């Protein structure tokens, strides 16, 4: 591995407040290139946010997110 910690989170927004949609997915000692899939077929309609954070051994961190809707 490349000594990276990668954390994936999904959140759903209800009544203007975001709530976790399941537990965070944490990958220790992750490779620099990641691919991950999750089935959303059973998720209820709504506004969602996907967040990812990456931290290296030195403690440097980068984060990103994307918002999507299930109808």
What does this structure look like?
0% of the residues are buried. The chain has strands spanning 4-14, 17-20, 25-30, 46-55, 61-70. Strands 1, 2, 3, 4 and 5 form a five-stranded antiparallel beta sheet that branches. The mean pLDDT is 90. It is 0% helix and 58% strand. The chain is built from no helices and five strands. The chain has 71 residues and is mostly beta strands. A hairpin with a 5-residue loop joins strand 4 and strand 5. The protein is elongated.
Envelope shape = elongated
Strand tally is 5
Poorly predicted runs are none
The largest pleated sheet is described as: 5 strands, antiparallel
Strand content: over 45%
Element pattern in H and E: EEEEE
Oligomeric assembly:
single chain
Number of helices: 0
Structural class, judged by helices and strands?
A: mainly beta
Short description:
With 71 residues, the chain is mainly β.
Identify the notable features of this structure and list them briefly.
single chain, about 70 residues, mainly beta, 5-stranded antiparallel beta sheet, about 60% strand, elongated
Q: What's the arrangement of secondary structure elements?
A:
Blueprint: E1 4-14, E2 17-20, E3 25-30, E4 46-55, E5 61-70
Antiparallel strand pairs: 1-2, 1-3, 1-4, 4-5
